[in-house]
Amino acid sequence: MASNGEYGLLIDFEFCSGCHACEVACKTEHRMPEGDFGIHILQDGPRKNSNGTWEYLYLPVPTSLCDLCEERVAAGKLPTCVHHCQAGVMAYGRLADLAAKAGKPTVAIFSR
Ligand code: SF4
Ligand code: SF4
Questions:
Q1: Any atom of ligand 2 within 6 Å of the Cβ of 26
Q2: Ligand 2, closest atom to CA 81?
Q3: Separation CA 88–CA 109 (nearest Å)
């Protein structure tokens, strides 16, 4: 595996529980100081729309500090956020392969 622009992360935030495990795993792996994040969990809601429906979701967003876990990937391991997400929200792979799985509105693909 490699992270040279052909590879990226697929994030299906429909299933994100907001547990922050990916955030903590990333900060620990990269020994990031307080305030820095390689991936950050944003939250929308709970709030009621004018039509009576509700918005309540968590959105994991890789930041400019994400290096797609270069060292782990070079050693044949998965990025630590992918490894620690028990909800299976994230996948790592070739962009072409990830794009084939991206046919729903809650899926985002990230690369560098
Ligand atoms: S791929 Fe690695 S560096 Fe990027 S968000 Fe995930 S854990 Fe952090
Ligand atoms: S992406 Fe996974 S590990 Fe990260 S907050 Fe969502 S459910 Fe938790």
A1: no
A2: 3
A3: 15
- Judge if the beta carbon of residue 32 lies within 6 A of ligand 2: no
Domain locations along the chain: 7-111
CATH number, domain 7-111, options 3.40.50.720, 3.30.70.20, 3.40.50.150, 3.20.20.80: 3.30.70.20
pLDDT in tens, the chain (112 residues): 444 679 999 999 999 999 999 999 999 999 999 999 999 999 999 999 999 999 999 999 999 999 999 999 999 999 999 999 999 999 999 999 999 988 888 999 999 8
CB of 85 closer than 6 angstroms to any ligand 2 atom? yes
